[in-house]
Write a structure and sequence with these properties.
Elements: E1 2-6, H1 13-27, E2 31-36, E3 50-54, H2 68-82, E4 87-91, H3 93-109, E5 121-125, H4 128-131, H5 140-149, E6 152-155, H6 158-168, E7 175-176, H7 190-196, E8 206-211, H8 220-233, E9 236-241, H9 247-256, E10 263-267, H10 272-275, E11 281-284, H11 293-300, E12 305-308, E13 323-326, H12 331-342, H13 345-362, H14 365-383
Parallel strand pairs: 1-2, 1-4, 2-3, 4-5, 5-6, 6-7, 8-9, 8-11, 9-10, 11-12, 12-13
This protein binds ligand GMT.
Length: 384
């Protein structure tokens, strides 16, 4: 198939999923065209079967806000026409589904394009496009319209599909295709851990990790709250991977608890698969998480997560088996549980194994990518 993929190309879960999906589809022989505002950060640009088309948004003194969504729609239609794409697959509904709807109508109307035909588009919902931004009254009606007009809609968890039906009143089918991880890339390699872990923790120290875009929804301050409690009870260090609006407030809190020297603020990192396996535990205390891709990536590396029981997280984490779930904001309970787990190495080991097993058995690319392929085929058969 010839597939056009659009996503936010910078750091963020939906962009990661879209990029990894494109890479996996290309490896399976599909022709993949990324139509994005810049090259997605996990692409090297050297992958076979992958093309990148930049959306350039021109500005004009009259424009207070340059119209990215229109430039995107134009580029989508051009690429779809030139390369005879079979379908468009957009990640994150706002505004990508609206742009895809326009592109699809342009192709069908055959304005200046060479071949008039149907160009189906699929929208994948990732989370805040429904649970946060999408609820804003200035976006809700148009997002609902574009979701309803999509030829296929997928959501990354049953929870998100349910929320979309409730909050948007969408009655059409929503296919649940959960997040995935490449278990050959996200894997704990003992020799790499032996080489790299001493950079972050001494042999007698426990190592925690948090990975996010440091937005308020991630509650990075709760990460510091939990870690500070643990670090006052046990020798411990924390790797904070990522960057974003709440980084400085996290730094200030670390200073207040006097744990700043025990925290590695690593900023945005490309090779997170090399850093995650170094840790003993992940902390993911999010206010909302439609799935929790960061926890899945850690679990594949045998790192269980201490997480909140929110959104789609329970579809990934089985409390006390492959991780631990807590009520939102209960940092005391999270810290206590982390301390007792670290003091029980056999229990931690069993949980680490269960975490890897879950990633491998249920969320590995080999299981999930074929679900996307067969969904594409179903949509194509339907619109023929
Ligand atoms: O909040 C983020 O991490 C970014 C956001 C996005 O859309 O880029 O992530 C959402 O999509 C991820 C991939 O599908 C999910 O694993 C995250 O749970 C989801 N984030 C939220 O729901 C807050």
């Amino acid at each position: 198939m010839k597939i056009g993929i659009t996503c936010y190309p910078t750091y963020g879960g939906s962009g990661v999923v879209a990029t990894e999906l494109g890479i996996e589809l290309a490896a399976r022989g599909h022709q993949v065209h990324f139509i994005t505002s810049s090259q997605p950060f996990r692409l090297t640009g050297r992958e076979a079967n992958i093309h990148f088309h930049e959306v350039s948004v021109s500005t004009y003194p009259l424009f207070e806000y340059p119209p990215y969504d229109l430039a995107l729609a134009t580029r989508m239609a051009e690429v779809a026409d030139f390369y005879s794409l079979d379908l468009l697959h957009v990640h994150y509904a706002i505004p990508h589904s609206v742009s895809a709807l326009l592109a699809s109508q342009m192709i069908e109307a055959h304005t200046q394009l060479s071949r008039r035909r149907k160009l189906p588009f699929i929208t994948t919902l990732h989370g805040t496009d429904i649970t946060l931004v999408g609820l804003d009254p200035s976006y809700l009606p148009i997002t609902r319209f574009a979701i309803e007009r999509s030829d296929g809609v997928t959501a990354i968890s049953s929870h998100l599909a349910e929320r979309t039906r409730e909050a948007f009143g969408v009655v059409s089918e929503i296919e649940v295709i959960r997040n995935f991880v490449n278990c050959d890339v996200y894997v704990r390699k003992p020799e790499l851990v032996a080489e790299m872990r001493p950079r972050f923790a001494a042999p007698d120290e426990h190592l925690f990790v948090h990975l996010s875009n440091f937005r308020p929804v991630k509650r990075v301050t709760d990460v510091i709250e939990v870690f500070a409690r643990v670090a006052h009870a046990l020798p411990a260090r924390l790797m904070l991977i990522g960057d974003g609006p709440d980084r400085s407030v996290a730094e200030q809190l670390a200073l207040r608890y006097n744990v700043q020297d025990r925290i590695h603020f690593l900023g945005k990192q490309d090779a997170v698969h090399e850093l995650l396996p170094l840790a003993d535990l992940m902390i993911m205390p999010s206010q909302m998480e439609s799935f929790g891709l960061a926890a899945l990536e850690a679990m594949a590396c045998r790192v269980p997560a201490i997480a909140t029981r929110v959104g789609g997280v329970p579809e990934l984490i089985d409390d006390q088996v492959n991780g631990l779930l807590f009520e939102l904001g209960d940092v005391d309970a999270m810290a206590e549980a982390a301390i007792s787990l670290l003091k029980a190495p056999d229990r931690l080991q069993a949980m680490s194994q269960a975490a890897r097993h879950t990633a491998q058995e249920r969320f590995c690319t080999t299981r999930i990518i074929p679900l996307y392929e067969s969904y594409y085929q179903r949509v194509l058969d339907r619109v023929k």
